[in-house]
Amino acid sequence: MEEQKQKSYITKDMTISEIIELYPETMDVIMQYQLSCVGCGIADFETIEGGAMGHGMTEEEVGMLIRDLNKIIEETRNIDIKEK
């Protein structure tokens, strides 16, 4: 059985500001993970992994965050496609 692999729009080495600039719909997910990095000045330089781990998240939790960020992007793009 072939597994369907989800496309990764966001990777752990992207900066927080890069993610928000490219995919503004991810801000709610970032805030749900209690990362207030959205308005932080260091967001231009810190990766999503570095910011999350700096706030006490484990590697597993960072993986879940990345998965949820990619999921919201995929859902948003599917909605946009259906509306056209």
What is the 3D form? Answer: globular
Rounded mean pLDDT is 83
Q: Low-confidence runs (pLDDT<50, min 5 residues)?
A: none
Number of strands: 0
Number of helices: 4
Description:
The structure is a single chain. The protein has helices at residues 16-22, 27-32, 48-54, 59-83. It has 84 residues and is mainly α. The protein has one domain. It is globular and about 30 Å long. The mean pLDDT is 83.
Question: What descriptive keywords fit this protein?
Answer:
84 residues; mainly alpha; 4 helices
Layout of strands and helices, then pairs:
Elements: H1 16-22, H2 27-32, H3 48-54, H4 59-83
Helix pairs in contact: 3-4
Task: Give me a quick take on this structure.
The chain has helices at 16-22, 27-32, 48-54, 59-83.
